[in-house]
Amino acid sequence: MTRRLRVGLSAHLASWGTTYRSAGVSRYVQNLIPPLSREPSVDLIAFVGGDATPPDDTADLDTATIIRTTLPTHRPFVRIAWEQALSGAACAAYGVELYHGPAYALPIAGRRPMVVTVHDLSFERHPAMFNRGNRLYLRLMTRLAARKARRIIAVSEFTRDELRATLGVPPDRVDVVHNGIDTRFRPGARDEVEAFRTAKSLPDRFVLYLGTLEPRKNLVTLVRAFARGRSEWPEGTALVLAGGPGWQYQAILAEIDRLGLRDRVIMPGYVNLDEQPLWYSAAAAFAYPSRYEGFGLPPLEAMACGTPVVCANESSLPEVVGDAAIQVAPTDEVGMARAIGSILRDDDLRRRLSEAGRDRAARFSWTAAAAATARVYERAFEAKR
After folding, report:
1. Are 367 and 180 in contact (CB under 8 A)?
2. Beta-carbon count within 10 A of 246 CB
3. Is the model's pTM score more than 0.85?
4. What is the pLDDT of residues 5-29, one digit of tens each?
């Protein structure tokens, strides 16, 4: 294209905070805005919620316009109402030529060209994770958006395959745009990491998981692997399960109690974004046995911090980590225990994985994601003609 395309981005899920609301799709939206607004082919209009507080370096970007509604769109029903009833008028008021829904949904009645991002189909593959209302909403809106969108962005090849297999979406209508890594994820300075370890009363050596505590993350298997391996691992090694409690997390607690591991499993709860690089940097290894991920940022963030990774060999994880992590079948607790143990005992392996992980993580940037997203916009707009 020879001119700038005016794009309306529904950014109501972005909070720019450090609480649980800044995780997941929120981080996708808020990390995409700054580099996307600098793309020469895009004139970005970002519609944000009434409680969002974009930092100055986002709000003042020359090529971005941040439009704040007075409505509390952090509430799901209000956000849905804005999208379905008010987004058309908002787009018309600011001359929006193309609309991007960054999380599964699009306005049903909108007529301008549209792009939608689909992160995963967990609500189809793991419906027990969702309450009935949320599950039905996601199923309905994703299907409608997949039909309505000129182009669909999938965050991985795995998700593109899921769209084809589950919703029958032709692959040639889907563009894969990998997520990026926040620049704050890098190896921590030794003195800063040790001060953090002391402040949190953490042991000298621990295996870390960081993410929501829920069934699809397969943490019961990780707890069993820890129980199997700890007698052979270096003395005093602990397991840290960091993250907020999710759907049916009580099963994890029950397994910890059944195996008598309360004194060796540390559960600090939700970890805010600013602290996450220090948790990764302080860990001896990072374990991510999740059975289903549309992309899987935590293993990549751990790699960016120089922490060796063991992860499951299913869904999108092999695509993300490549050969820079040890991959194990998510049902293989014995193999998981051996893989973690090899990292804890072998200094050369740990060093090789740390270097390979940093190199791998460096391939994923939000600047590259924004450039690829801008190309999707151009394809979608040209398709209208």
Report:
1. yes
2. 15
3. yes
4. 999 999 999 876 544 445 678 889 9
